[in-house]
Amino acid sequence: MGIVIHRLVIDTEGKRVQFQEGFESFAARHGLTDWEGWFSPYDDGTYDQVLQNIGENDVILDIGAGDLRLALRMAERAKKVYAVEVNPKVIGPALEAIGWDLPRNLIVICANALDITFPSDVTVAVLLMRHCQHFRDYVSKLRSIGCRRLITNARWKAWVEVIDLTRPGIPFDRVRGGWYACCCGAVGYVPYDSDSSEEPFLIHEVEGCPHCKP
Ligand SMILES: C[S@@+](CC[C@H](N)C(=O)[O-])C[C@H]1O[C@@H](n2cnc3c(N)ncnc32)[C@H](O)[C@@H]1O
Fold it and tell me: How far apart are CA 40 and CA 128, in angstroms?
């Protein structure tokens, strides 16, 4: 029964694939640095925040899908889920554990998400990857296929946000004070002008912040 699939215990977590021999050269070959290639699942609270933001008509691209535990849950409520995971030692045992219960609307792709063309029917992307070093690449690839929303913890780390990809950020130099989040993945705070009338807790969606690489 589809409903119970996500309760399967998929034992890739305990094996800590990132500490196995060969992982370092695999990660280097894929350009994954600073823990970006490490598999580590998040907590149910994080997954619930994602699930609350997807609907039955959504076609989802799960970037860095790990052992598919979230992808399986998303497939229960969305139209289709493409799950992309670079690490064969994570995705292989996960597929083995799921076996014949693999839902028809869950398309699993073992590949580097930076290398593949994203499917053109994707409406929402999910990027749960706090150590993501390629945020800007994903945003521009998603925009190029017309994907409308990105659900991610890559920028703020401690919580999940939903980014409206249809609205470009404002130029950074127009921020007169307050928090900002940039399409390059950086976040930060600009001290207020004394005469600024901006709301203190407004987060400005920006482009061209001081952390952007030239
Ligand atoms: C922190 S884990 C999170 C796994 C999953 N999103 C979850 O929440 O359970 C990040 C995953 O992203 C994968 N990953 C990182 N960079 C990737 C890339 N360029 N293409 C595909 N997968 C990638 C890693 O192999 C790892 O399994």
Answer: 10
Identify the structural domains of the chain with CATH numbers, from first to last.
2-164 (3.40.50.150), 170-212 (no CATH)
Distance CA 201, CA 187 (A): 14
Q: Is 177 left (phi over 0), alpha (psi -120 to 50) or beta?
A: left
Answer whether residue 172 shows pLDDT above 80: yes
Q: Is the CB of 69 under 6 A from ligand 1?
A: yes
Instruction: Check if the beta carbon of residue 80 is closer than 8 Å to that of residue 68.
Output: no
Mean pLDDT, all residues of the chain: 90
Residue 16 sits at the vertex; the CA angle it makes with 13 and 20, to the nearest 5 degrees, is 150
Q: What would the pLDDT profile of 40-98 be if each residue is shown by its tens digit?
A: 999 999 999 999 999 999 999 999 999 999 999 999 999 999 999 999 999 999 999 99
Ligand 1: does its nearest atom lie under 6 Å from the Cβ of 127? no
Q: Using CA positions, which residue lies closest to atom 9 of ligand 1? A: 41
The pTM (predicted TM-score) of the whole model is 0.92
